[in-house]
Structure formats: structure tokens, C-alpha cells
Design a protein that fits this description.
globular; 19 strands; 14-stranded antiparallel barrel; single chain; 4 helices
Length: 366
């Protein structure tokens, strides 16, 4: 029992703490936001034009040009162990034909059991010594968007991201980064977009409580002999998030006054080698496809494909895996309720989640 209880605690803390020392940080910022976008396979960088553009492409905030909008989403990972919350508000500045937005994101695991003091040196078990801690990542984003050369068809946008992360009493980190976005919309409803994330190689500066870390010790020796103690971590650690660029092209077709179809194809470029179907030394490219069928701009049916990867099988052969997504939406008098069935955050293992989000447009209520 002693080994099993402590093993679970040790593995949990190792999993959480490994996020602080890896080379590529802030993965929670890549999860996404908005059930509509998830249902469309995240292929929205060119067509997004509401408060959720603060995440996907800040250039799209210029479409919020009458009154303020607000959006929110709540989702859960791994049978509700981890929770993800997102909220955004976009406010048009009519005098300058521009828009500002603020968004807040939290990804956290709460009430993690800390059993490091459960068993004393004499082997006595004291359940009163069990405590709880949380690990959470926060991001506050401030966005600005406007037209280029006063051309209503060309928009640009920028995000300034402030990141705070903490792992109980063991460590905490702060960081900063910048995103840039651009959109071009033609009069015949063609959409072009590009979103450059973390162009400053978003960083986190970590401060580690080494005294607390030393308390995490395994009594059993490892293969090399000495006990496993996390006591060799630096007092401060800097980690970087490499830039990513997403390109998109879309088109909207109006079949009649009520029925329309919007489609988009995106290419997500990362500057590291991954399992993406297009990958080489120092880069990878992942295609994303999405569509939205609309009836009277009130009822929406959506679908998309993304997360195309090469997965190695047990026999050593590689198999291409593509993630399908689907969803529906309903909009009435400025209130949008959207649903998506998706592998939330590309967590793998076929773990599909039900995602709901809501958006409110104030101008429809004036």
C-alpha cells in the first residue's frame, strides 16, 4: 500500500512538473476555443469574424464593428480531471474603425492529493497528513485590430499575451508573448488569412521552490542506487514556445436567400519535427479542413478534419490517422449556442468530448 499510494502521487507530480522543464512550453495555449471552430477542424483563421477571433486570428475582430460581443466556453479533459475555461469580450472603437478585445484562459487540475507526508520514517500511516494542491495555467490576452490603409477588405490584428502558471507550492512561472494576424476578404466572399503565434518565442520564467521539491522522494533505490529525489532542478528556468504559423483560404457560397455553405482549408506550420503527415527536420505542416452549412443564419451544421498524423504500428509500419469533427449551432437574436464533438486538444487515444460554447452580440439587443 505504501508503494502504491506514493507511486501514484509521484507519477502525478512528475507529470505536472515535467511541463515546467520541457523545451516547448505553454501547450495549453494551443488547445483552442469556441465549439464552432472545433467542429470545423480549427480551419477558421481566414473566416473568423467575432469575439473568438481574439484567439484564432485577432484580425477578424474588425468584424465586431457595431457593439460589443462576449463569448465563453467550458470543457473538461480525462473524465473531468482537468478543466478548461475561456472567456472573451470584444469592444469596437467606432471613431477609429478598430476593435479591442480581452480574453482569459485557464487550464487546471485541482485537488491533487499530496501524500508525501502520509507515511513517516517509522512506517506509520497518518491520513491527516494528506493535503491537496492545484496546478493551473492562466493566460490573459489583450488584442487590437484595425483596417490596413483604411481598406475595409484588409484587416490586421495583434495579441499581447501574459501567462501565469503555478504547480502548487512547488513552482510558479510568468511569461509574455505576441501574436500577429492578417485577413483579406473579397467582395465575392473569398477569405484569406494568416495567423503567426508566439512570434517572439513566448517565454516562461520559472521560480522553483527546491525545499518543497526535495520532499518528493521515493524510498526505493533506482537502477543506479541512490533514491530518486528531484533535487537537481535550477532555482530558475527559462523555457521557450516556438512560433507557429497558420495559413487559410475560404469561400462562402449562397445557394439562395436562406441556404449558404462556407468552406475553408488551412495549413498549420510548426518549426519542429512532429508526426504530422508533412514533416521534416525542423518543420511540420498539418492540413485542416472545415465547412459550415447555414440555414437562414440561424441553424448551422458543421464538420471538419484535422490532426493528420503518421502513427507507428506495433509491426513498425506507419499508418495515417485523421481526426474527424462535427457540430451544430443555433443563433437567435444575437445569442449563439454551439456544440462540437471533437478530440479536445488532440489528446489522442480517440478521446472525444462534447464541447459547448456561447456567444452574445449586444447590437442585436439595442
Amino acid at each position: 500500500m505504501k508503494k502504491s499510494i506514493f507511486f501514484l502521487s509521484f507519477i502525478t507530480s512528475q507529470f505536472v512538473f515535467s511541463q515546467a522543464i520541457r523545451k516547448y512550453s505553454n501547450e495549453f495555449l494551443s488547445i483552442g476555443a469556441d465549439a464552432r471552430s472545433f467542429a470545423m477542424g480549427n480551419a477558421v483563421v481566414a473566416n473568423i469574424g467575432n469575439a473568438n477571433a481574439a484567439y484564432w486570428n485577432p484580425a477578424g475582430l474588425t468584424e465586431v464593428n457595431y457593439d460589443w460581443e462576449a463569448a465563453a466556453m467550458h470543457a473538461e479533459y480525462f473524465q473531468s480531471i482537468a478543466k478548461f475555461d475561456y472567456a472573451a469580450v470584444a469592444i469596437p472603437l467606432r471613431e477609429s474603425n478598430s476593435t479591442i478585445a480581452f480574453s482569459l484562459m485557464r487550464f487546471g487540475v485541482d485537488d491533487i492529493l499530496n501524500t508525501t507526508e502520509l507515511i513517516d520514517k517509522q512506517g506509520n500511516v497518518n491520513y491527516d497528513k494528506i493535503s491537496k494542491f492545484s496546478t493551473a495555467d492562466y493566460a490573459l490576452t489583450m488584442s487590437y485590430a484595425g483596417n490596413v490603409f483604411n481598406n475595409k477588405n484588409i484587416q490586421f490584428g495583434a495579441n499581447a499575451k501574459f501567462v501565469y502558471r503555478h504547480i502548487g507550492k512547488f513552482a510558479q512561472g510568468v511569461g509574455f508573448g505576441i501574436d500577429l494576424g492578417l485577413q483579406y476578404r473579397t467582395d465575392n466572399q473569398m477569405y484569406f488569412g494568416v495567423m503567426a503565434r508566439d512570434i517572439t518565442t513566448t517565454f516562461n520564467a520559472w521560480s522553483i521552490n527546491k525545499n518543497k521539491v526535495k520532499e518528493i522522494e521515493v524510498d526505493e533505490p533506482n537502477v543506479d542506487g541512490p533514491p530518486m529525489i528531484l533535487n537537481d532542478l535550477p532555482a530558475e528556468n527559462i523555457e521557450l514556445t516556438l512560433p507557429k504559423v497558420q495559413f487559410g483560404i475560404g469561400k462562402k457560397y449562397d445557394f439562395n436567400d436562406r441556404v449558404s455553405l462556407l468552406g475553408e482549408i488551412d495549413m498549420n506550420v510548426e518549426f519542429q519535427q512532429t508526426n504530422s503527415i508533412i514533416s521534416g527536420k525542423g518543420f511540420s505542416i498539418s492540413p485542416q479542413i472545415g465547412f459550415e452549412l447555414s440555414y437562414d443564419e440561424m441553424i448551422f451544421v458543421r464538420g471538419g478534419f484535422n490532426n493528420a498524423q503518421k502513427i507507428e504500428q506495433f509491426d513498425g509500419k506507419q499508418k495515417t490517422q485523421i481526426q474527424p469533427n462535427a457540430g451544430v449551432g443555433f443563433k437567435y437574436k444575437g445569442i449563439s449556442i454551439d456544440y462540437a464533438l471533437t478530440n479536445f486538444g488532440n489528446s489522442g487515444l480517440g478521446l472525444y468530448s462534447n464541447i459547448f460554447s456561447v456567444r452574445f452580440e449586444m447590437d442585436k439587443w439595442r
